[in-house]
Specification:
eleven-stranded mixed beta sheet; six-stranded mixed beta sheet; 2 domains; about 425 residues; alpha+beta; Immunoglobulin-like; Rossmann fold
Amino acid sequence: MKKITLFFFIVPVLLFSQNYTSYFTGNPVDVTTNHQFGICLMGGATESDEAMIWFLEKADGGDILVLRASGSDGYNDYFYTELGVTVNSVETIVIHNADGAVDPYVLQKVAQAEAIWFAGGNQWNYVNYFKGNAMQDALNHHVNVKQAVIGGTSAGMAILGSYYFDAQNGTVNSAQALFNPYAANVSLGYNDFLEIPYLENVVTDTHYDNPDRRGRHTVFLARMTTDHGVRSFGIASEEYTAVCVEPDGTARVFGEYPAFQDFAYFLQANCTTEFEPEICVAGVPLHWQRDNEAVKVYKVPGTITGENYFKLDFWENGNGGTWEHWYVENGNFIAEPGIPIDCSIVSVEDHALNNLTMTPNPVTDVLQIIYDQPLKLEVYNIFGQKIINKKSGLHKTIDFSSQSNGVYFVKATDESGSRVFKITKK
């Protein structure tokens, strides 16, 4: 676990300006390594050493940058000397204001880093200082162009989803959010900050066991679905638990189960035609029941070896976890044992389009639709967003070459009715 000691292998350099404070340890000469992409989501409290080793190894001996808006150099010694992973340097930069976030020195360090870690604190400071400026661009470049590892704990985890609770008006507990999903302190951002693979339409939450945040997290999903018309997703970690996402979307869970009850949670609005909350309006308690299966949750125990996981490329399969159903009745949160999610959508009319076939499935480039009549074809991604809408004659194809790997739903319609096919892009 993380310790703060009084010495370094190399005497740290302290650089102070009015807008930021830098604590540097290691080799000041920048290096280039064979770094890897990854995401590390830590639930708060003390770090999991095994997850932090995973994070550092993704940097392949490169430079580690810790960004924070409060605190000091508690990570430098921990990352540089205590975990047994060789890295070139560790630098903590404490950002004091928005000017500090876009200082040329700070932006250069972001560009040079092989790994970026967000410490805990107040996530509104991160959003307020980093959003809508050159820092936001630099962070998205780090992930999507450089394809390097990123992660954070507590507030640092809270900002990593494309949908996020920004805490602009302070925190909110489950009871408050369930009572009024549009209360001022249920302040949410959507698709306007960080763009991290596998975290599209995902809202994260932390400190899940202290206090119980399942209710408020469900409200965040309900708001996303209501406000933006998409299926909503969530990832949560209990304290001392971490979710580490590999380049292929495998989300490994680290903790100390069974010695401790360390769990991560993967939430999603149920994969049904009607997935929206029945009642999600201002000033009225949330009601999101949907046959007691409004939210499907895969609960995964975190272990030292991280062998239990959930697959974020399809959001259907995992290892070592159990399924639960979460729903809300007039502001009352309920969790029950559940069954696996089933996204094999059946046809709208069983007799319609029975002789229609789609091949190949899985598809890599072009999907062939074999049917002897003209069709209207609509393609939806896993979030429920329509991404293709076309009318086809007798020769029917859909080009998937530019789409990301994952699950899609193709709806074919003619005069006899409609039918929906589940297609996997690999």
